[in-house]
Each structure stands twice: as C-alpha cells, then as structure tokens.
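Let's inspect a concrete specimen:
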Amino acid sequence: MRIVMGVGGGIAAYKSASLLRLFTEAGHNVSVIPTEASKRFVGVATWEALSGNTVSSSVFDEVEKVNHVRLGHEADLIVVAPATADLLARAASGQADDLLTNTLLMARGPVLFAPAMHTEMWAHPATRANVQTLRSRGALVMEPGVGRLTGTDSGAGRLPDPEDIFAAAIAAATPPEDPAALPGPLHGKTVTVTAGGTREPLDPVRFLGNRSSGKQGAALARAALDAGARVRFIAAHMDVPAPDGVELTRVETALELREAVHAAAVDSDVLIMAAAVADFRPDTQSNTKIKKRDDGADPVITLVRNPDILAEAVQQRSKAAAGTARPALIVGFAAETGDGSADVLDYGRQKLKRKGCDLLVLNRVGTSLVFGQDSTEVTLLSPQDSESVPPPSYTGTKTDVAQRIIGRIEQELEAALPVR
C-alpha cells in the first residue's frame, strides 16, 4: 500500500518515527511529508532513513514530478500524526500553503488525523468545529490520548499510541468484506464505550485497582461495530486487546477517564459506561516507593472520592440547549453484591434513580462471578420499569449479552426519535 504520512509541528513528532517503522515493517511504501515546523523537532534525515524515500515539504522540490498533485492522487492512505491544532485548522479551511496541505486537497483515498495538542486547544470551540468539519467530509479524526502532556500538565491531548494509530489507519484503508452489504441499524451513529478497570496510583509501584478484565466492554464495542456504528473506545486497564476498527483512547485513572468521556460525549449518540471506575483514590501520590518503617508502624492511606462520571454525563446532557443534547442515550453499568439491607436488584434500582441514566446494566459480582469470566448474567433496568413486572435478564457469553444490549439500544434510539 502507498501511504503518505504527514508530520505536524509538535513535540509528539518523535513518536511518529515509531509509527513509520510499523508501516514499513508491514511492507508499505511510505512517503513522509513533514511541515517546516515539524523539522525543528525531527530532522529530514530520520524520515529518509526510516522510509527509504526522499523527503520534502515544499511544492517547489522535484517540480518535474508535480508532487503536490501526484502524491495525493497515488496515495492509498494519508495519515497525519501528529495533527496539531494549526494543521487541523488549515486542513479544515482548505489551505494549500505547503506540500502536505496540497496533498490533503488532492487525496482520493482515506485520510486519518491523529491529534496532539494541549487540552485547552483540543477543547477550544474552534478546534472542535474544525474536527467536525473534517469528519463531515469523510476524514477520520481519532480521539487524542489522555495523560501527561508537555510540561507538568495532564489531560486529553496526547498523541495516540503509534500501535493504535497503525491499527486505525489499516482499518480505514481496508474495504469491507462485503461492499454490497446493507448498512447496519446503527449506521451513522457514534457510540462511545468505556471499558476495563481504572488504576489509582499510590506510589510508582502500587495502585488501587479492581478485577475488571475489559471483556464485556470489548464485546459491546464489537457488537456496536457489527451494527454499523462508529465506535470510540476508551480503555482503562484491560486483559484483552481493543477490537479492531474502534477509535481507541487509553487511560489509566478515573480522572483521565473523566476527561476522555467529557471530550467524546459532546458529539456521541450513545455513551456506554462499561468501565469499572474506582470510587476512591489516594489523596496523595508518593513520588518514591513507600518503604516499610523500621519502627514497625503501618502507613496510613487516606482515600478521597473520585468524581461520578456517569452522573456528570447525565447532568451535562440535561444542561444542553434544546435539540442539541448529547448523547441521546446514556447506559450505565452497576456491579453489585447484596447484603442484609437489600438485594442486588434493589441496589440496582437505587443506582439507576441516583444516576439518572437511560438504561442500567446490572451485574451480580463476586470472586468467581463476572470479572474475568467469559460468561455473564445481567439485568437491564430502565426508568420505565414497573415494580410488578420483572425487568429483562440476559444470560450467556459476554459476546451474546453484548449483542442483546446493543439490540436494546437500537430499540431505544428508534423509539426516542426525534432526538431529545
């Protein structure tokens, strides 16, 4: 496959060298087009050595080959990584002031942008509008990663991992197995799925975590893809790989997950909160490993509450202007154990009312139940349930149950039209 790899002028440009290596080792012929600004971070010699091709950023180099037309016409795929705020703006407005933007205008195949910038830049209305414009024209704009940024800041804006960009790019350039197949019931819908378990650091070695494997979230993402949806997959710690074809964002902590969910929810049709989010985190994180004290005293760890991401998503939707509320459907998950005060179903109904979501998938959990298993049993609760009629329960493999849940989501979306 002939690939054009554009490199924007950000500190994350160095990571694109690993992406280029993945493309070339897979046997693809890659032409790298760095912007002038990006060459301040990574030199042309690096791109030529790794690609085996001559590298240029000017429309006046090799004029006899008409590169500003030829490269875009011949490319089976164009990948821009990192895509800075400036580069997204220039691409959205159709500027053609260097070889890369000329090539983007001449593209005839799929185009993928992997953003990298500071959180405030990514969240700015101008950037969001540019992203929406590019997506409306058929370009694939990945969600950025969440974590440490340049300097001491953290948040949404990290360049996605090279492996994730590679997977998304290959998926974008791979035609469907059956081009004549009819669109699925979720065609045209964007579904955001969270999965896995968050980890709250105590020191560089230890963390507060949970038993979630991410299997159910991955199964839900695959079922949504099979239904024709565009799927954003926000993954905390997982024991299974993310499904091929999703737009992947990796997170570690509850606060990172919160940032990613808020960023993705604003233009998603469905939000499925399948991740096991830690309710608490240590109030302080030691920069060094906590040692056993010679006097035998035990350390005291103080926990503080993490934000309620699901409830916040519901609240944000309720505050949106009429006709613009997103997501149209919010699905929560509850992992519960019964006790002397109430059973699992009672606690599930209480949580549904407290969170305010549209559907709640209720799991009975335990040491050998649900977490890490390939099979599951869930009860699906909604605010319209009657106390006298048992809510529907699904039992089977997590793949089977995911398909049943996505089927219910399809019904809810159809019944909710027009979108509230």
Remarks:
- The chain has two domains: 1-174, 181-420.
